[in-house]
């Protein structure tokens, strides 16, 4: 108990002295993670769409060559950035470019370097997520779009991608949460984010564990908040629970329309009434068929 009291006292002292600095670090971490996730999703979307462009043996050789080359480049990009640690990618981009170009190409803004590193890394993971989301959409959707005269671009924009994006939304949220934590390695290029603040505070006070407790609480606060907001967004994208069903001729306005509730324990009044009417109609038709059969036999 004495150690816990001492820990609480040390944490309170650190927060009183460096609380604003910790908050600035959290702010920079969230900004970097959010911007890099958005850019990475755009990169992944482009790569995923390029990987799913249909290519048949009957297509012109030029088209097959270009698509094959693009897919090979995308595959190399995905495998390289998924197969190497982000910390080494940051070192190669921030320190490697000036080394190989004799400082002709270098980053004068550490924000630009950090956003580039995290975005490119996120794009490599999102490329496969987008490809999987597109493949997961029922092929009948594509066939139906072609049947009504849509070309490939229209089919992707209006039919496939909206469904694919809903399918990969949990993965987008997962990548954002990963980026919130993985930005901690950007201290390697002198980017001052949340973990870099922790290192600076420890260097000034030598209170490593109390500062780590603040770091743990801050990261948990950011990731749990992000998870809550992402689940809320998923529910919003799912639409309302109650919707209209067309039980009869859909070409007649209002004909056979009734409200439907997802929760079967609380059936809607209109839904119950419609069930009763349908049951009565079926019973009446069955009686008419029996009477018609009797008349035919007589």
TrEMBL record:
What's in the GO CC field?
Answer: ATP-binding cassette (ABC) transporter complex
PANTHER family tied to this protein: GLUTAMINE TRANSPORT SYSTEM PERMEASE PROTEIN GLNP, MEMBRANE COMPONENT OF AMINO ACID ABC TRANSPORTER
Q: For the region Disordered, what residue ranges are annotated?
A: 254-298
Q: What is this protein called?
A: Amino acid ABC transporter permease
Q: Which domain of life is it from?
A: Bacteria
Looking at the keywords, is Cell membrane present? yes
Question: Which organism is this protein's natural source?
Answer: Candidatus Ruthenibacterium merdavium
Q: Which family does it belong to?
A: Belongs to the binding-protein-dependent transport system permease family. HisMQ subfamily.
Q: What residues does the ABC transmembrane type-1 domain cover? A: 26-230
Q: Which UniProt keywords apply?
A: Amino-acid transport, Cell membrane, Membrane, Transmembrane, Transmembrane helix, Transport
Q: What is the lineage of its organism?
A: Bacteria, Bacillati, Bacillota, Clostridia, Eubacteriales
Compartment(s): Cell membrane
Where, by residue number, does the polypeptide cross the bilayer?
30-53, 74-97, 109-127, 185-208, 214-233
Basic and acidic residues compositional bias: what residue ranges? 263-277
Q: Which GO terms describe its molecular function?
A: transmembrane transporter activity
Chief location of this protein within or outside the cell: membrane
Q: Name one GO biological process term.
A: amino acid transport
Q: What is its membrane topology?
A: Multi-pass membrane protein
